[in-house]
Write a structure and sequence with these properties.
137 residues, mainly beta, 4-stranded antiparallel beta sheet, elongated
């Protein structure tokens, strides 16, 4: 067989052939996918929504006008959130929500196949609901 001999002299280190390991400055945080479904009435341009942290910081913003031209359609967006508690706010510039003589719409938030929030029909200018994802700190 082959033999290898290494000679080390006290106080001297052999030249390194590899770089030292690097460390990530922050641990990776798990983010969860929340599915936001919006079924519009006949006036999608009046509809908006946002998700904010409980301290009021808006994380995702879809103001009225964002969905112009999507009348009567359903849109689905996936939002990635860290574990925690959040506020979902549905907005309607006309003050009738997803209602009545102009068709009936809804919002639906799902996580991992489970319904977090659901609202259909009238809610005036805004409706705010709290939901949690993962294990909030």
């Amino acid at each position: 067989g082959r033999e290898r001999t290494h000679l080390f002299v006290a106080g001297n280190m052999p030249a390194s052939t590899t770089s030292p390991p690097t460390h990530s400055p922050q641990p990776t945080v798990t983010k969860y996918a929340v599915e936001v479904n919006i079924k519009f009435d006949d006036y999608s341009s009046q509809t908006g929504w946002y998700i904010a942290s409980v301290d009021g910081t808006v994380l995702v913003d879809r103001p009225p006008g964002y969905y112009s031209g999507n009348d009567t359609l359903t849109v689905v967006e996936n939002v990635r959130l860290e574990p925690g508690e959040y506020q979902f706010s549905a907005l309607d510039a006309n003050g009738d929500g997803f209602c009545c003589q102009h068709g009936i719409g809804y919002y639906l938030l799902n996580f991992n196949g489970d319904t977090l929030l659901y609202q259909q029909g009238r809610f005036e200018f805004s409706r705010n609901e709290i939901f949690s994802i993962g294990n909030p700190p």
